[in-house]
Amino acid sequence: MTALRPEYEAELAEGPEAFFEPLRHGCPWCGSVRIGGHLRTPDLLQHKPGRFRVDRCHSCGHLFQNPRLNARGLAFYYRDFYDGLGEQQLDGMFGGRTASYRRRAESVRPLVDGAKRWLDVGTGHGHFCGVARTVLPEVAFDGLDRSEGAELAERRGRVERGFRGGFTELAPDLAGEYDVVSLFHYLEHSTEPLHELEAARTSLRTGGHLVVEVPDPESGYARLLGRWWLPWLQPQHLHLMPMGNLRGALAELGFTVVAEQHRSAHEPVDLVAAVWLALEGAAPRDDLPWLPPVGPLHRALRGAALLAGVPALVAAALLDQAVAPFTGRLGLCNAYRLVARKD
C-alpha cells in the first residue's frame, strides 16, 4: 500500500483533467446533437479523484460518459480494481456467483442447442465458463479478456483457451470459429460498442448465436436510486444502451434477435448496493494509496460507521429478495439479455 502511494501521486500530478478526452457535442450512437447532462457523480467505489458526467441523447436515448476517459484515464481508473489491490476481492466476489452463472447458462441453453464452441468475451477469471461447462458439458469454452485473467482462467481449467487482448484486434484471427459468442456485461465498458458487435459477427459462423447482456438504463431503479444505482458504475461504464437501440444495431449487422430476456438477467442487488454506496460515501475514507494517509483513529471511526450501517444493509438485502419476483412486472429489472442469430 505505502509503496504504491508515490506512483499514484506522480500520476495525479497533472490533476484528473489529464485523464479525459475532449467533450463530445454529438451522440456516439446516432450522431444527434440533441444531448444533455443526465448524471454527475464521483467514483463511488474506489474513491479515486475526479468527477464524471453521463449525458443522454434526446433523439435515441443512448447514455454515455462525456467527456470520456482517454487511454491513460482508463488505465488509471481500472488499475487496482480487477487486478492488484482489488484482484483477490473481485475474484472472491465473482467466484461466489455460481448460482447466477448457472441461471445464465440455463436460460440460453435451449436457444443454442447443438453448439460446440463458445467464446466468452470479457471473461475476467473465467468463472462463468467454469460453471457453464457443468450445464453444457458438450461445449468447449474459450475466454478472451484484456487482462491476465484470461490466461489465469486457462491455467485453472475454466476455459480451453484463454486469449489476452482486445476483441476487435483478435477477431480476424478467430473468424468463423464459434457457434456462440457471449458479451456478458462487456459492451458498457467498451469505447466503441458497435465495433465490438462487428467483431462478434466476424468470430461467429453463419447460423451461430450472439448473447449480449448489459445494464438496462430504462430500469425503474435507475430513476428511483439516482447516482446510487450501482450499474452507473462510473467511471468504468462508458455506454448504457436502451434495448431498442441494441436491437436495431444487431439488425443492421445481419442478426435476427431470437430471444429477449429481462427477469433472468436481473440481479437482486440494487437496494443493498445503493445503501452500501451511500454508507461508503458517508463513512471516513479507507487507507488507499490514491488518497491521503490515515491513522488508527481514522480507521477505527470508519469501522464503527460501517458497523452501524449493518442493519440497513440487511434490511435492503431482504427487500431486494422480496421484490425480485416482481421486477419484470414493475419494470425494475437492472439488466436485459438479447440472443441473436447471425444470418
Automatic annotation (TrEMBL):
GO terms for molecular function: methyltransferase activity. CDD domains: AdoMet_MTases (cd02440). It comes from the Bacteria. GO terms for biological process: methylation. InterPro entries: SAM-dependent_MTases_sf (IPR029063). Keywords: Methyltransferase, Transferase. This is Class I SAM-dependent methyltransferase. It comes from Streptomyces marianii.
